[in-house]
């Protein structure tokens, strides 16, 4: 595997001694879409902050492109240029007076020239559909707009790896539907995309591979099409089995569809029903 990010034998404990990750070994392949599943408290958000250098492991190593992270100012600056993290709560990430100022913050701190900063900011705002909100105060944005502003701020850094913590949380169905094509577009541009989510249906339909955390340990890591192994783990951890898998199994039992491999999404299931052979 050509890993862009790795954690090796990583433990992490909070200041009060509460363990969050335990002897975790996990590698994220360059250029792939990975979904990270698990209950609240499984360690998903902690892992994401370790990958971005916000937190440091209590034990073990975090590596980027095969090299251990450096936690000095220069090392973290380089890491944040390569690995961008969008938090679940946009209010914890937005701090500037206007959207444009907030999106400009990252590239300005990279020491880029004004023309390059302006180009990156305009491109990032256009990518997330906030060009017409550029001068608006960040506090005046809707929740969904705040999420997009946070994403624009990360995109303006032009990272190789894009990490999103529960990007669909708090979004209505229409906004969630627009999120998937955006993530695909960012991936198609050559980025590695890692998404932490509770939505098993989204994970199976979107991701190339899936990781499941349980109590700070790795319960599953494999291709999203490994439905048998994935479903065993999801059922055992009571995380829910993807609806499309359940529907496919029911249709198989009735002889409506054939084949051993289930579809990954509603669209794939409908296509199979339209052409059952």
Please give a structural write-up:
40% of the residues lie in helices and 22% in strands. It has 277 residues and is α/β, with parallel strands linked by helices. The strands form two sheets. Strands 6-7-8-3-9-10 form a six-stranded mixed sheet, sandwiched between helices. Strands 2-1-4-5 form a four-stranded antiparallel sheet, with helices on one face. It is globular.
Give a count of the beta strands, DSSP E runs of length 2 or more: 10
- Please tell me what the overall shape is: globular
Span between termini: 35 Å
Question: Strand share of the residues?
Answer: 15-25%
Taking strands numbered 1, 2, ... along the chain, how are they ordered across the largest sheet? Answer: 6-7-8-3-9-10
Compute the average pLDDT.
Answer: 92
Rg, rounded, reads 20 Å
Which range best describes the helical content: under 10%, 10-25%, 25-40%, 40-55%, 55-70% or over 70%?
25-40%
As residue ranges, the low-confidence spans are none
Report the biggest beta sheet as strand number plus sense, adding barrel if it closes. Answer: 6 strands, mixed
Secondary-structure element pattern, one letter each: EEEHEEHEHHHEHEHEEHHH
Helix/strand/pairing class, anyone? alpha/beta
Number of helices: 10
List the keywords.
277 residues; six-stranded mixed β-sheet; four-stranded antiparallel β-sheet
Describe the secondary structure blueprint for this structure.
Layout: E1 3-13, E2 19-29, E3 33-37, H1 44-51, E4 59-64, E5 67-68, H2 73-82, E6 83-86, H3 99-109, H4 114-128, H5 143-155, E7 161-165, H6 173-188, E8 192-196, H7 200-206, E9 209-214, E10 217-223, H8 227-236, H9 243-253, H10 266-274
Parallel strand pairs: 3-8, 3-9, 6-7, 7-8
Antiparallel strand pairs: 1-2, 1-4, 4-5, 9-10
């Amino acid at each position: 595997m050509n890993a862009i990010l790795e954690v090796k034998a990583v433990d992490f404990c909070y200041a009060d001694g509460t363990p969050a990750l335990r002897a975790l070994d996990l590698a994220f392949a360059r250029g792939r879409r990975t979904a990270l599943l698990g209950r609240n408290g499984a360690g998903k958000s902690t892992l994401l902050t370790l990958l971005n250098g916000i937190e440091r492991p209590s034990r073990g190593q975090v590596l980027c492109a095969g090299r251990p992270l450096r936690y000095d100012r220069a090392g973290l600056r380089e890491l944040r240029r390569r690995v961008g993290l969008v938090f679940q709560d946009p209010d914890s990430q937005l701090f500037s007076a206007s959207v444009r100022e907030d999106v400009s913050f990252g590239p300005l701190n990279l020491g880029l020239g004004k023309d390059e900063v302006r180009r990156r900011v305009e491109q990032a705002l256009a990518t997330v559909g906030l060009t017409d909100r550029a001068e608006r105060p960040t506090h005046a944005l809707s929740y969904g707009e705040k999420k997009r502003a946070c994403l624009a701020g990360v995109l303006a850094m032009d990272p190789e790896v894009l990490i999103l913590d529960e990007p669909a949380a708090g979004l209505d169905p229409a906004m969630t539907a627009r999120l998937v094509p955006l993530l695909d577009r960012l991936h198609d541009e050559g980025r590695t995309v890692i998404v932490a989510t509770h939505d098993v249906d989204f994970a199976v339909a979107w991701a190339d591979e899936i990781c499941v955390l349980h109590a700070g340990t790795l319960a599953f890591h494999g291709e999203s099409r490994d439905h048998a192994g994935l479903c065993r783990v999801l059922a055992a951890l009571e995380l829910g089995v993807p609806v499309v898998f359940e529907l496919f199994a029911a249709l198989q039992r009735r002889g409506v569809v054939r084949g051993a491999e289930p579809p990954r999404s509603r669209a794939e299931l409908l296509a199979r029903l339209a052409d059952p052979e």
